[in-house]
Amino acid sequence: MRAKIIATAKNDAAKPLRFMFVGGIATLVHMCVAAAVLSARPESSAFLANVIAFVVAFLASFYGHRHLTFSTRGSMRRFFIVAVAGFALNNVILSIGLALSAPKLIAIIIATAFVPVLTYLASSMWAFKKK
User: Fold this and answer.
1) Exposed / middle / buried, residue 73 (Cβ in 10 Å: 0-12, 13-18, 19+)
2) CA 67: distance to chain centroid?
3) Burial of 20 (0-12, 13-18, 19+ CB in 10 A)
4) What are the domain boundaries of the chain?
5) What are phi and psi of 40, to 5 degrees?
6) What is the pLDDT of residues 33-72, one digit of tens each?
7) What is the pLDDT of residues 69-100, one digit of tens each?
8) How far, in Å, CA of 38 to CA of 11, rounded?
9) Cα dist. 48→22, 25, 43, 108 in Å?
């Protein structure tokens, strides 16, 4: 029993690190896809590039968190709600960056960097909450 408690505590302590790792990978996916869209079609809207990048990064994030971070099935629907709320915040920050005349990709990078903390909290307490 004591060994199980210690193992659980160690697992829980490492969870934020695993979340950062998976989130880092998903963020890189997001940025690379956005960069690829803007490179292939420079006339593209930063918002279109961001939406395409979000969809690809969402899938990488969900499956990474399911298998590495939380080791539980979780709810794709709930995680999608969390991700869309984070994406909405991301777009508010993106709008501010563009309004301040930041280059498109820089505005996307800044916007993408601010959302993960809130996403972790909502994911761990709701989307991937163990029953």
Assistant:
1) exposed
2) 15
3) middle
4) 2-127
5) -70, -35
6) 999 999 999 999 999 999 999 999 999 999 999 999 999 9
7) 999 999 999 999 999 999 899 889 999 999 99
8) 40
9) 24, 21, 11, 11
